[in-house]
Design a protein that fits this description.
single chain, alpha+beta, BirA Bifunctional Protein, domain 2, 7-stranded mixed β-sheet, 5-stranded mixed β-sheet, binds glycyl-adenosine-5'-phosphate, Glycine--tRNA ligase, EC 6.1.1.14, nucleotide-binding, GlyRS-like_core
């Protein structure tokens, strides 16, 4: 049984080049993280898997990449200027600052075994704190020039509803998908990349007739929970959480979270919302531009309801790391490894010459060059074969291919499987097909 702790994940992520603290040489900056060579590959693989499922495999969802900076009226219409707030309390003794509704989730800085308010704390009354980052557009820093760093990607989709529909000749029901950065001045970020101030979202907004919103809501709940299975996240670690009446966001008619069991408890991974006609209705009101849909068959005119699926990219990556982490003992030696689904693995196959002589490096390099156009492969000739296997296990490489003495006589190679440690002989001419069948 592997016990996964955040310390193990953070340490592996740093050591093997997945995630580093941002601006580390200056002491870091709170709640900002940088993705290293393997992290950026893993993140791209998460995004690719999502984009494929949401757009490539469907006729009824189009893609979009809207600007981060938007007209300030967008955020008035969306309700973010008024409602995107969290209750903030300060402690007059330790000068700590906390979310009033999450005191039980953080330690007291002066006495970490207790929560804020339980020690010698003096907490202020809660006050509402808007989480949007502000900046100025143009050279003059005055209130008329304030704009916001978008706190969600969704609004870029709503304001482009008509553009996308007409240019792609879609009819309701249809959706728009987008992946992009979002920024939130979180009061209590934490748990590594779980809650940060700069992060990426993978959001899809599906426009439907109001009478069909419940049907589509169910459809998207099923689709989204099934997607986590396709990227290898264990089913028993996922569950739905339905938002109770008082929990619903200001725009939502109904909401379910897909939750994952993180080492720090069950937490939201993705939100699925029935947003009703709130978004297009508000943008129509604030922009004075018609955002209705006219159904040419029924001659009906209406503001579509929106079913939203909103997943965090960084949070999915964290989930993938935690879910894949395993420890076992092989031939008396401890090993930790990442049992990534092949679609997410940053390196799909490592190619090793057994020794640096007898022409083995040349064969291995030629093979690496041949496979490179199809898979993310990695060539390594340094150190013992055991150490090379271990290094690949730790970064989740599903297959290691070794060129050995037998290769020289019969053109076959050893393929070692990360999870089972089984070794199979495969002919060089069949290797590409062998890997394709297993990696996809
Ligand atoms: N458009 C709806 C929306 O933004 P949300 O529940 O606030 O809904 C959706 O965010 C998802 O974005 C969350 O489920 C989470 O995965 C991710 N997310 C939200 N805030 C985040 C943060 N501060 N850091 C990392 N991911 C975050």
């Amino acid at each position: 049984m592997t016990t996964v702790t955040m310390d193990k994940i953070v340490s592996l992520a740093k050591r093997r080049g997945f995630v580093y603290p941002s601006s580390e040489i200056y002491g870091g900056i709170n709640a900002c993280w940088d993705y290293g060579p393997l992290g950026v590959r893993l993140k791209n693989n998460v995004k690719r898997a999502w984009w494929r499922a949401m757009t490539q495999m469907r006729d009824d969802v189009e893609g979009l990449d809207a600007a981060i900076l938007m007209h300030p009226r967008v955020w008035e219409a969306s309700g973010h200027v008024e409602n995107f707030t969290d209750p903030l309390v300060d402690c007059k003794v330790c000068k700590g600052r906390f979310r009033a509704d999450q005191l039980d989730m953080v330690p007291c800085p002066d006495k970490p075994s207790k929560h804020p308010g339980e020690h010698h704390c003096e907490l202020t009354e809660p006050r509402q704190f808007n989480m949007m980052f502000k900046t100025f557009m143009g050279p003059v820093e005055e209130s008329a020039n304030v704009i916001y760093m978008r706190p969600e990607t969704a609004q870029g989709i709503y304001v482009n509803f008509h553009n996308v529909m007409t240019s792609s000749r879609q009819k309701v029901p249809f959706g728009i998908a987008q992946i992009g950065k979002a920024f939130r001045n979180e009061i209590t970020p934490g748990n590594f990349i779980f809650r940060t101030r700069e992060f990426e979202q993978m959001e899809m907004q599906f426009f439907v007739h109001p009478d069909e919103s419940e049907k589509w809501f169910e459809h998207w709940k099923e689709q989204r929970s099934a997607w986590y299975d396709t990227i290898g996240i264990r089913k028993e670690k996922l569950r739905f959480h339905q938002h109770a009446e008082g929990e619903l966001a200001h725009y939502a008619k109904a909401a379910f979270d897909i939750e994952y069991e993180f080492p720090f408890g069950w937490q939201e991974l993705e939100g699925i919302h029935n947003r009703g006609d709130f978004d297009l209705g508000r943008h129509q009101e604030y922009s004075k531009k018609k955002l209705e849909y006219f159904d040419e068959v029924t001659r009906e005119r209406y503001i579509p309801y929106i079913i939203e699926t909103s997943a965090g990219c960084d949070r999915t990556l964290l989930t993938a790391l935690i879910d894949a982490y395993r420890e076992d003992v092989q031939a008396g030696e401890e090993r930790d490894y990442l049992a990534f689904h092949p679609s997410l693995a940053p390196i799909k196959a490592a190619i090793f010459p057994l020794v640096k002589k007898e022409g083995m490096p040349e064969i291995a390099q030629k093979l690496t060059a041949e496979l490179r156009s199809r898979f993310e492969v990695f060539y390594d000739e340094k150190g013992s074969i055991g150490k090379r296997y271990r290094r690949m296990d730790e970064v989740g490489t599903p297959f290691c291919v070794t060129i050995d003495t037998e290769t020289l006589s019969n053109d076959s190679v050893t393929v070692r499987v990360r999870d089972t440690l089984e070794q199979e002989r495969v002919n060089l001419s069949e290797l590409r097909g062998f890997l394709e069948a297993r990696i996809g």
